[in-house]
Amino acid sequence: MIPDSLKNSLDGAIPSMIVSVDENDMPNVTIVSQVFYVDENHVAISNQFLSKTIRNLTATKRAAIQLIDPIEIFMWILQVEFIREEKEGSLFDDMNMQLEAIASMTGMQDVFKLKSAFVCRVHSVEKLPKA
Amino acid sequence: MITDELKKQFEIPGSFAIGTTDLHKNPRFTRIPAIFATENEDEIILMVSEINGLKAIDQLKVNPKIAVSCNSQLDDTTYQFKGIVTAVAELNASEIEAMNTRKSITAKWAGEMMGPDFGVSYGKMMSENGWKLNVKVLEIYNQTPGKMAGKRIS
Amino acid sequence: MQSDSDSIKQHISENETIIQKLNEQLERRTNEIKIIQSISDEIINSLDPESIFNRSMQLLDEVFGFHHSHILLKKENEDVLYVVACHGYENSGLGAEVKYGEGILGTVARHKKIMRVSGIQSKLRIVKMMTADESKSESKKLPGLPKVDSQMVIPLVVDQRLIGVYSVESEDIGAFKAIDELILKLVGSQIATAIENAMLFKKQERLVEAYRRFVPEELHEMLGKESILDIKRGDQVQGEYTILFSDIRGFTSISEQMTPQQNFDFINEYLGFIVPAIKKNGGFVDKYIGDAIMAIFPNKPADAVRAAREMTKNLAEFNRVIQSRSENFTQIKSGIGIHTGTIMAGIIGADERFEGTVISDAVNIASRLESLTKEMSCAIIASDAVVRTLSAEERGNCSELGDVNVKGKKNSVRIYKLDD
What b/e sequence results for C33-64 when a residue is b if at least 16 CB atoms lie within 10 Å of its CB, and e otherwise? Predict the structure, then answer.
């Protein structure tokens, strides 16, 4: 489902955006610093500061994610479905380590703790022209 | 509600996007070229170009609720507006020109930041048609990273 | 018709281009694997840490375009890394330290997991914005590029033990992709092993060097062993060897006037003057007993005689040097006894402590001859067994002193005074 050419955009070189929706069909759009590659059918976002997004995902499951290729600057749109939360394991560790590494550059590693990884199944991938 | 400070955010190099839902109430993401303030202090006008916006326009008939993100490329100041789309119309010639003028602000900035090639390619993205969406703003949130993040300001 | 054939031609040519591209990619992939193989071979075969550091960083730059790289090693007994090598920087930053958990380097060290980070500047900016009000001290200056945006750090791990980290970085956005991570992973494990081997080798060299000072190499050779590692308790050899005994006369009374430190300094300086003559003439020191030296000459007795004369000359030089330093110093004198006989050399000891030693009557005789130098008031005394093997020239001015009895020995030994 996730093509090889998309993986560069999941390295977090350029922040991504995510749209979720609440029970009353009100959308929410926000910036997310990195969407993580899990496997060829799944991506994950970090449950750390995105409280509204996390609440919406828990309630309605669906989200749209915009990614930008860091070299070619074109856009990808992913339609995803939240399927599970992980609070330990190698995915959680990898995501936490990324967070910790950046935070520790300013000595803030104790403040920036990952609560959990929100794993989403990718339903569709769409490549848009440069924007 | 739409203060002067907020209006200023529409006219600087920025990244503007909307969140809507599709026919099945699934979330949709669409990048938009420009946001304009209006006479009404609880209304904004969004300009959506043909390339990215076609599907979103149709789907607004099913669910007119919309979230609008306005992010400054200069200092990461970010606001989110939540509201209802009250009217949709095709852009006329002068509106297209106004939209392209706004686009060129970001294009010029991108050229300075990322090198002339990038600026040129960004500048080529000028639109020839599109839609305007009148949005009645219900809520405004500060989304700038920091202490204020997530706070409702209006 | 015309246009159909054109379109077929175009189609074929497009296909050819695609096939050619695929082949190129395949070739490139094969080449990369070959290069990684050859880097590994070259690195793994080196036992010099410096050349492993520099060569690997240079090769990764030339082949994969990793222009900026660092190697940091872990300090012993401390969770701290320090820069041992770098490539592509104006300021080397060698020796700079990074604690575990500090920045990307320290985080990789703490978790012992490879990490590839992109968008460092924008992520860092957000972290700073989020924590702007919290008055934490300014971030510590860590080694690396000031505006690094992409970085890959691999832990260098041997037997699950972290020995260091290898870092490559770039100021470009999205500079490193998954394939680069794979390359670094492949080469990194080789580098880790190579560094560990080279470090172990260096340590072992130092150990062997240290052991050599305690158990002389010549003793291994006498025992027919290549190195100290092959020696075990009970190893022994028997043969005709010459023993040389040397002692400072009246050292006890000199020693009483000195502090312990002065004693050691004095003896070490003295030995520094005297001992080189032994090795130079084909002998080796079997042991030191206080100020006394016991040396073995495995080849000709004449070697020991030559050494004895040189030692006497060196002692005169020692006296001159000491006297020039302190005027009230009374010159010291030494005696040397030399005897040739059948000796057994071997390894003795129990539990943890072994020693190479020589067991023989010949040792007692040489020691006795040395003690006779005082009453005979001469510097060097050799036994008949020694003197009869010497050429006229080697004997020099040599006079017989008669026969002496040695404790525990049935026959008396004829002794000679040798000129010094």
Answer: eebbeebbebbeebeebeebbebbbebbbebb
